[in-house]
Backbone:
């Protein structure tokens, strides 16, 4: 793995690092959370500057969380990693160890390099640098502005006829699959972060969010569409404690919802067949079967085949798994031939983050990831409990936006790319643990101020406070 990293270092790379890292480090020494947030525009737009940047997009993106951590250290922040961060570190170590017996070591090495250099630092940097709600707001401002620009640029490309097309699918800036995920994320973030504000922000957020949804359909990427459909009730559940209970208590609302779902499922394919290009509508939206794409077992693109191969690999090696990247070898063993032209570096994955950990790291990897998601759910439950007590509107918007960000990323991860390229999931998880860090810092500040107040009164009137219990028991 070290050789893989060293082989990418060139004179141009070192020169760029020298002249690029210095201003970033200066900025990070003052605002480390800003440097962290700049990693998202680097991810979305650095590919357009590839001719001028001598390193890969992944390497560019990896710089920002690492520099943010360095800036936090310069500011004297303390490391307060919780259970999620510690479990992620253990999971990364497990992935590295599994390279020793991987069935596809070339692809597995690249996966581990990306996790070590980008995914893990992203979560750790968010937990380390997001210590106040002001820092969280700065991050969300940069993220929402980046996604707004991405939506606007995609819309302009479509309206001007300059868009890229893959088959009949709208490819936007990054290709149809990645474009759909970030257009959907842009809709979620703009609607949650901008719409509750003043009139101008509300109009802009609604226009961007509503405008992104048709573009998602034009990409033909069903993952983002399903995630958008799932994030709406999930966010309502976070906002309102009694949302589902009140939904079923009111019979009229329940019946209306069922009627809307029935009508949408019945006439949705017909409407899409007229609104979308013919090949796109017939191939992806003409029926429920084409939408969920079960496929046939002899095709590597079949989602049924993904599940079958993952389950067979788990049965063959339930404890150790097939190693990092080993799903690729399991697929080739199952179909009896090389996939993707035999390219050892081409990503091959089961399109589900749980199945991927189960196949490649066995039960230990799956349990560690489930442990992380369990504690993420506990943070969401804590959000539901604290949300009614937040009096500052901007803090409520930030909490709801972060929750929606994570939920959308989690839903996308069930049918999308491989582990190190689940950028939305890792961004959402990092922001979520950042919320936990912010509340922890607030609690420590309150305890410290209460203790100082108590000790000050005790010093001023020693007779009255001489029999008071110790501070930790008060």
Residues:
């Amino acid at each position: 793995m070290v050789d893989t990293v060293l082989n990418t270092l060139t004179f141009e790379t070192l020169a760029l690092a020298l002249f690029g890292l210095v201003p970033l480090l200066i900025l990070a020494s003052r605002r480390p959370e800003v440097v962290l947030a700049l990693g998202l525009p680097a991810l979305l737009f650095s590919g357009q500057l590839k001719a001028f940047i001598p390193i890969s997009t992944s390497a560019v993106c990896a710089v920002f969380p690492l520099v943010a951590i360095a800036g936090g250290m310069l500011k004297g922040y303390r490391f307060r990693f919780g259970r999620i961060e510690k479990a992620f570190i253990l999971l990364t170590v497990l992935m590295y160890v599994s390279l020793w017996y991987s069935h596809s070591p070339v692809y597995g090495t690249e996966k581990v390099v990306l996790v070590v250099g980008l995914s893990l630092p992203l979560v750790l940097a968010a937990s380390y640098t997001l210590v106040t709600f002001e820092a969280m707001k700065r991050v969300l401002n940069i993220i929402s502005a980046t996604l707004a620009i991405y939506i606007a640029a995609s819309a302009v490309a479509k309206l001007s006829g300059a868009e890229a097309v893959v088959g009949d699918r709208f490819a936007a800036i990054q290709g149809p699959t990645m474009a759909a995920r970030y257009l959907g994320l842009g809709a979620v973030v703009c609607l949650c972060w901008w719409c509750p504000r003043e009139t101008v922000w509300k109009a802009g957020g609604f226009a961007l969010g509503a405008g992104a949804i048709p573009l998602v359909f034009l990409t033909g990427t069903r993952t983002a569409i399903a995630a958008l459909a799932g994030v709406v009730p999930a966010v309502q559940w976070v906002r309102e404690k009694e949302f589902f209970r009140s939904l079923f208590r009111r019979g009229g609302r329940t019946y209306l919802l069922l009627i809307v779902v029935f009508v949408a499922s019945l006439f949705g394919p017909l409407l899409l067949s007229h609104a979308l290009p013919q090949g796109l509508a017939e191939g992806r939206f003409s029926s429920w079967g084409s939408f969920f794409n079960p496929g046939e077992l002899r095709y590597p693109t079949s989602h049924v085949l993904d599940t079958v191969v993952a389950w067979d690999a788990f049965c063959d090696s339930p404890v150790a798994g097939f190693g990092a990247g080993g799903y690729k070898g399991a697929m080739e063993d199952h179909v009896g031939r090389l996939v993707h032209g035999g390219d050892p570096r081409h990503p091959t994955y089961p399109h589900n983050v749980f199945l991927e950990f189960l196949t490649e790291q066995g039960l230990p990897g799956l349990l560690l990831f489930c442990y992380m998601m369990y504690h993420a759910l506990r943070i969401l439950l804590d959000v539901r409990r604290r949300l009614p007590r937040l009096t500052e509107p901007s803090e409520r918007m930030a909490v709801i936006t972060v929750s929606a960000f994570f939920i959308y990323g989690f839903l996308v991860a069930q049918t999308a790319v491989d582990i190190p390229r689940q950028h939305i999931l890792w961004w959402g998880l990092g922001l979520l643990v950042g919320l936990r860090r912010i509340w922890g810092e607030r609690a420590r500040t309150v305890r410290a101020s209460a203790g100082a107040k108590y000790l000050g009164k005790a010093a001023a009137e020693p007779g009255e406070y001489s029999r008071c219990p110790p501070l930790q028991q008060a």
Residues 183 and 212 are 6 Å apart (CA to CA).
